[in-house]
Amino acid sequence: MATTPEHDERVANMKFFSVYPHYVSKVEKKGRTKEELHQVIEWLTGFNESDLQKLIDEKVTFATFFERAKLHPNASLIKGVVCGYRIEEIETPLTKQCRYLDKLIEELARGRKMEKILRKA
């Protein structure tokens, strides 16, 4: 399933600071912690807690967020369906990166073990 240019543009222009509280809420409702969320985000992007806070304070878009990120070399091991899209079939790099993050957060909220979420080769 291919994404549309409009969808990709909408994803690129979303503000990270406006979505981040939803990530926190989603994992905490399921008994996981903000620290675990930060561990997952750091694994994928290389951003530590202070980096995240700076990005939130700057009100960056997801385009800027992922431009600054150093994606983990094993990120391509993240597979499956999230938000109605099969991650492996998404062609737009930014949209794929956003779905990687969504998938990791979904797995965290569903109680998957951290060693499985943080893919190893």
Automatic annotation (TrEMBL):
Pfam families registered for this protein in UniProt: DUF2200
Domain of life: Bacteria
Gene3D superfamilies the record matches: uncharacterized protein sp1917 domain
Name of the featured protein: DUF2200 domain-containing protein
